[in-house]
Every structure is written in structure tokens, then in C-alpha cells.
């Protein structure tokens, strides 16, 4: 089983490379490195923060390209172009196909984010060389790596949801809309919950709205929890217990979504 999952994952990675996503990521990384250093020169008091803010945002953006574009494209193409029949005609079960595709997409996201993380460290090194090490006293490689790990976990969770949406729908357009909606809800649900809990005088919230937000909080993932760019930019490393809790939350939610995707895909009638 593991061998077949790995074979499907490798095939997915090759498909992603064929679409030149890694070449695009490499060019993007070089552009990020140069632009971040030039941009930071306009803010001499916050050199380190500006470089890290810009570069880490680029790392997250690069990772999000996988679920938003490549994942939907590859999964929908297999079904729409009937490639899925060729794959499933071999000794590959539907569960192995889903897990293999997911693992391959996860590897591609990791490769893209590793390239952009390398560009981040290169930008910091170049900034030190041009402006002096005193502007980078708060820089912490560990905080940057933890921030990137958090972003990757968020991308992994969103990719699992993309897999689920693609198994539920027959349209790549609808899968894209569901992914965008999931991302927006996941990024804002924490802020909305805090706003409702504040009970601001003069602002009335209907019980229905509160009920919908509460339901959304339990159904949709809190993607904002994986965003640690601000802490990384200030050299703050997340406490081990908090990091372990975050990893556990992301892993558990991802596993549940993948299990649901496998269950749905097993019952789906592919025509």
C-alpha cells in the first residue's frame, strides 16, 4: 500500500514539475530576495522586520499556489480527462490514489517553500552585508523556521480541504470557489469570534448570526492560527507546548478531512 501511495505521489510531483512550478518558484525567490533588500532600504529603522515580513509573506504565498492552482488543476484534470480510469485500472485503490495525490502535492508545496525560505535567509545575509549587522540584532533563524513550519501546516490543511472539495464536486470552478471561501473563513473566523465576544455597546448582533459564526468556528479550520509571520519578524520563537498543540491540531484536522475525502471518493460514481 505504501509503495503504491509513494508511486502516485512521485507521479504527482513529476506532473507539478512538468508544469514548471519549481522554475517559477526559483525565479520568484530571486525576485523576492532582491526586492526585499531594496525595499528595506526605505525603512532603515526596521530593516530586519521589513525584510522578514515581505519574505515570509512570499513563502506563504508560494505555498498557497499549490492548493489554489496546482492541486485543483491536477485533481480535476484527472477526472475530466478520464486519466483516473488509467490509474485505477492498475492495482491502485481509490484511497491510495487520494493519499498519493495529497502526499505529492504536499512535497511540491514543501519544495516551493524551501526555495523561498532559502531566499529569505539570502535576503537577510545581503541586508547585513549592505546595511550592517546591528540592524538585524533581533533576527532569529529558529523563529523563521518555526514560522515557515506553521505556514506549511496551514498549506497542508488547506490542500486536504481542496482534495475533499474536488472529490465532492465535478467542476473545477466550484472547487475553486469552495477553496477560496474556506480560506477566507479560516483566516477571519478568529477575529469575528473575538468581535462578537467583545459585546460593543450600541452594536446589536442577532442570535442567528452568533449561531452561524459558532457553527463555522467548529466546522472550518482556524487557518489564522498557523500564521506566525509577526512573531518570526520580531525574533519570537513559539513555546514548545504551543507549537506541539498547533501541530496536533493541524494533523488531526488534516487526517479527518482526508478520511472524509477517501470515504466520499470511494462512494463516488465516476463517469
UniProtKB/TrEMBL annotation:
Q: Transmembrane residues, as ranges?
A: 21-44, 50-76, 97-125, 131-155, 162-185, 246-265
Q: Would the keyword Zinc-finger be found if you checked this record's keyword annotation?
A: no
Instruction: Name the InterPro entries on file.
Output: ABC2_memb-like (IPR025699)
Q: Which UniProt keywords apply?
A: Membrane, Transmembrane, Transmembrane helix
This protein's record includes keyword Nuclease: no
Q: What is this protein called?
A: Membrane protein
Amino acid at each position: 500500500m505504501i509503495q503504491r501511495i509513494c508511486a502516485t505521489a512521485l507521479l504527482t510531483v513529476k506532473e507539478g514539475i512538468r508544469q514548471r512550478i519549481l522554475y517559477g518558484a526559483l525565479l520568484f525567490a530571486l525576485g523576492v530576495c532582491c526586492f526585499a533588500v531594496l525595499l528595506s532600504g526605505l525603512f532603515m529603522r526596521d530593516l530586519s522586520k521589513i525584510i522578514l515580513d515581505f519574505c515570509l509573506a512570499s513563502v506563504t504565498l508560494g505555498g498557497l499556489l499549490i492548493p489554489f492552482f496546482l492541486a485543483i488543476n491536477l485533481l480535476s484534470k484527472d477526472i475530466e480527462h478520464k486519466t483516473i480510469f488509467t490509474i485505477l485500472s492498475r492495482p491502485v485503490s481509490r484511497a491510495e490514489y487520494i493519499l498519493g495525490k495529497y502526499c505529492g502535492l504536499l512535497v511540491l508545496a514543501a519544495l516551493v517553500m524551501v526555495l523561498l525560505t532559502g531566499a529569505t535567509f539570502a535576503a537577510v545575509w545581503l541586508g547585513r552585508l549592505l546595511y550592517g549587522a546591528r540592524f538585524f540584532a533581533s533576527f532569529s533563524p529558529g523563529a523563521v523556521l518555526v514560522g515557515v513550519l506553521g505556514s506549511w501546516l496551514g498549506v497542508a490543511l488547506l490542500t486536504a480541504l481542496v482534495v475533499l472539495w474536488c472529490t465532492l464536486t465535478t467542476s473545477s470552478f466550484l472547487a475553486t470557489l469552495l477553496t477560496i471561501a474556506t480560506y477566507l473563513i479560516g483566516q477571519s473566523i478568529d477575529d469575528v469570534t473575538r468581535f462578537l465576544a467583545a459585546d460593543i455597546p450600541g452594536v446589536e448582533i442577532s442570535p442567528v448570526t452568533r449561531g452561524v459564526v459558532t457553527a463555522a468556528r467548529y466546522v472550518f479550520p482556524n487557518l489564522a492560527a498557523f500564521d506566525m509571520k509577526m512573531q518570526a519578524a520580531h525574533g519570537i520563537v513559539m513555546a514548545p507546548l504551543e507549537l506541539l498543540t498547533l501541530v496536533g491540531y493541524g494533523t488531526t484536522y488534516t487526517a479527518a478531512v482526508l478520511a472524509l475525502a477517501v470515504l466520499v471518493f470511494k462512494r463516488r460514481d465516476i463517469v
